[in-house]
Hints:
Helices cover about 30% and strands about 30% of the residues.
Amino acid sequence: DAKYISKxxxxxxxxxxxxxxTFAVQAFIETIKQYGMNDYEFEIYEETTYTVIENVRNCKSxxxxxxLNDFNRQVLExxxxxYRLQFHPIFDCGLYVYMAKTHPLAGKEQIALEELMDFxxxxxxxxxxxxxxxxxxxxxxVPYKKLIKAxxxxxxxxxxxxxxxYTICSxxxxxxxxxxxxxxxRLDSDEKMTIGYLTRRDMHLSKIGMDYLEVLGTFKxxxx
Length: 224
């Protein structure tokens, strides 16, 4: 049907690639609701860190959502410069232990790293680019006694419930997406992570891209 094809071709595309952040997915959902689907074709990719960078570099996505910290900043910024990409900070946050509410440590106000060592640390697999610098868990160089890698968020959440696993993250959690069975507890650490977005240096942000980032920025208002 030629009419259908021409209508589809005339749609503008909005695409975001991200590390595994529920708040970034939630912001994407709210952007879809704001704009509707008549004029836009939407694409969202939860990917390995390297693929997030590649997708922005190759214009597959307008924006890439990831984090920098003291450990990975120098290496990743060198890659950004080489690929002519720009990292823009959105907000800084402390570190949290994310676990099922049934976890033995879930009721604590703060958790020390040593207390976690008998439990499995869950980590997102980075595929062939498995360098510490691409890790999504912030304390990637800690010699965990038990470490399990998974490729997607649903599996990670199942492992939290099934074997008392945990992951270390920003603590900005969307219950409406992950469900109410999980909790984020502050980790006893001075380390910070900077959540931000990646763009190509030679591209101007679209109006929908700016609106998406505005929604994303509202998550920092929560007390994390």
